[in-house]
C-alpha cells in the first residue's frame, strides 16, 4: 500500500496541490497505528523513509522525523471510520479561496454535478452533496473533537475542508481516497468558477 501512496503523492505534487512542503498523507497500520508523512518534507520527492509510524493520538512511535502537526486529525478519521485505509490532505488554491469566500457557511453544497458520483454513496447529480467546512484552528486536537461531534453528517462526503487551509479526503483504499480527492477538488473548482461568472 505504501508504494501506491507514494505514486499518489507524486501525482498530487505534480498537480501543485501541496506547494511549499504543505499537506500530509497517511495509511492505516495494524491496531491504532498509522504510517504518516513526516513534518516538513517536500511532497514532490517523498520516499518510504519520509514516513513515520505514530498512533492515532499523533504520538511518534518509529521512523526518522516527527509526525505532521495534523496527525491527530488523521487519527480521528481512522478512529471514527474503521474501514478507512488512507487519508490525503491537500492545499489547492480553489479549496482555499472558496472556503474563504464562504466565510459564514458551515458547508459547501453541490447539486446538479455529474462528478458528485465520484464520491462513494452518491449515485445521481440530483442528490445534494454537503462538504463540511471547519474553521481553522492551530490546536489540531480541537479540530479533531469538532469533527467527532459532526461526524454523522460530515463523513458522507468522504472529505472535509479546513477554512483557508485545505481539503482532507479519505477512502477504503489509496485508490478510493485519490478518487475522492480528485472528485472533490473538481467540484470545488467548478463552484468557484461558477461564482466568477455570476458576477
From TrEMBL:
Recorded catalytic activity of this chain's protein: 5-(methylsulfanyl)-D-ribulose 1-phosphate = 5-methylsulfanyl-2,3-dioxopentyl phosphate + H2O
Pathway(s) of this molecule: Amino-acid biosynthesis; L-methionine biosynthesis via salvage pathway; L-methionine from S-methyl-5-thio-alpha-D-ribose 1-phosphate: step 2/6
Keywords, in A-Z order: Amino-acid biosynthesis, Lyase, Metal-binding, Methionine biosynthesis, Zinc
Domain called Class II aldolase/adducin N-terminal: residue spans: 3-192
Cofactor: Zn(2+)
Record-level Gene Ontology MF annotations: aldehyde-lyase activity; methylthioribulose 1-phosphate dehydratase activity; zinc ion binding
E.C. designation(s): 4.2.1.109
InterPro entries: Aldolase_class_II_sugar_metab, Aldolase_II/adducin_N, Aldolase_II/adducin_N_sf, MethylthioRu-1-P_deHdtase_MtnB
A GO CC annotation given for this chain: cytosol
Cleavable signal peptide: none
Top-level taxon of the source organism: Bacteria
Protein name stated in the entry: Methylthioribulose-1-phosphate dehydratase
Organism, as annotated: Candidatus Berkiella aquae
Record gene name: mtnB_1
Amino acid at each position: 500500500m505504501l508504494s501506491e501512496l507514494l505514486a499518489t503523492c507524486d501525482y498530487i505534487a505534480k498537480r501543485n496541490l501541496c506547494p511549499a512542503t504543505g499537506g500530509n498523507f497517511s495509511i492505516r497500520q495494524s491496531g491504532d497505528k498509522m504510517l504518516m508523512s513526516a513534518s516538513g518534507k517536500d511532497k514532490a520527492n517523498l520516499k518510504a523513509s519520509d514516513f513515520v509510524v505514530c498512533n492515532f493520538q499523533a504520538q511518534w512511535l518509529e521512523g526518522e522525523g516527527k509526525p505532521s502537526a495534523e496527525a491527530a486529525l488523521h487519527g480521528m478519521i481512522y478512529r471514527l471510520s474503521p474501514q478507512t485505509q488512507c487519508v490525503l490532505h491537500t492545499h489547492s488554491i480553489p479549496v482555499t479561496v472558496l472556503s474563504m469566500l464562504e466565510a459564514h457557511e458551515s458547508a459547501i453544497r453541490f447539486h446538479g454535478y455529474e462528478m458528485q458520483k465520484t464520491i462513494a454513496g452518491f449515485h445521481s447529480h440530483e442528490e445534494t452533496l454537503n462538504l463540511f467546512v471547519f474553521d481553522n484552528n492551530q490546536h489540531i486536537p480541537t479540530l479533531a473533537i469538532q469533527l467527532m461531534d459532526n461526524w454523522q453528517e460530515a463523513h458522507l462526503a468522504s472529505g472535509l475542508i479546513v477554512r483557508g487551509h485545505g481539503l482532507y479526503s479519505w477512502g477504503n483504499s489509496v485508490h478510493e481516497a485519490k478518487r475522492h480527492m480528485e472528485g472533490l477538488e473538481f467540484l470545488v473548482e467548478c463552484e468557484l468558477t461558477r461564482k466568477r461568472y455570476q458576477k
